[in-house]
Amino acid sequence: MHATAPTALPLLESDVLRTFVAIADCGSFTRTAAQVFRSTAAVSLQIKRLEETLGQRLFIREARRVQLTAEGELLLGYARRLLKLNEEAVARFLTPTLKGRVRFGTPNDIGDRVLPGVLMLFAHSHPGVEVEVNVGRSVELVAKLDAGELDLTLINAGNDGLDDSRGEVIYSEELVWAGRDGGLAMQRSPLPLALANPGCAWRRTALDALDRQGVAYRIAYSCEQCAGQEAAMTADLAIAPFPRSLVKPPLRRLGVEQGLPALGEYHIKLIRGHQRNDATEALATQMIQAFAHPTGSRSTDS
């Protein structure tokens, strides 16, 4: 009796996965067709064949938008990772080998939440480049950049002492009020706040908004990083201005229904130093791409 050879599983083509991800991102077959320079019929045929290959329906077509099915959501995670791995593999062999050193600055919380993944990818794609990371407050990082001690830095726009005409905005997110779900801090008067130290853009935005609306408040908790604000909110000591993506249980978003004013958006900027080279530009490009396609929460030290 002869053993039966295992049936080979079909391979997923990068071109088809790229189309699938583009549709998931923009919600339209027609707009995706324009982006990938194909006809809408050709894009539809690609997705039909992908669905037949996997034996699953991936999209639900609605009047003005297409949405992912549960199976489509699952495939999206795999597709992004496969495309990223393909890009990394090709870059490893086709990108000229860079050598050198990049002195990079980042505010505290970006360093904690975002940098590990970005720097790991950069180390794989540019193993000859040494990256030195300096973590600190935005104002201090810009001073080091101007003194020639850094080549590149991320900052939180709007902080006191910063020239907001400098740098490139690479990420924007809504700033919202947050507090412990079911907590009592929101009901106290004056309203207890957890804020970063003076000079922080989030602090100024929050206080200006409360002053305009005539809401009485007191600063109950001051800290350098948003992790401290999160701790104060979790303990129900205060509420705080916080990035929307970071408001997770046991915290909840607060707003107009609690009589609180809107706070608008905050922005993360990338600023280059005076001395530029290929290694610095490579890291800058990778940083911009990471923020353009976020895979997790990110914020800054204010």
UniProtKB/TrEMBL annotation:
Family matches, as InterPro entries: LTTR, LysR_HTH_N, LysR_subst-bd, WH-like_DNA-bd_sf, WH_DNA-bd_sf
Top-level taxon of origin: Bacteria
Record flagged with keyword Cell membrane: no
Stored PANTHER family: HTH-TYPE TRANSCRIPTIONAL REGULATOR LRHA-RELATED (PTHR30579:SF7), TRANSCRIPTIONAL REGULATOR (PTHR30579)
SUPFAM superfamilies tied to this protein: Periplasmic binding protein-like II, Winged helix' DNA-binding domain
The protein's name in its UniProt record: LysR family transcriptional regulator
Domain HTH lysR-type, chain residue ranges per copy: 12-69
Species of the source: Ectopseudomonas composti
Keywords recorded for this protein, A-Z: DNA-binding, Transcription, Transcription regulation
Family stated for the protein in its record: Belongs to the LysR transcriptional regulatory family.
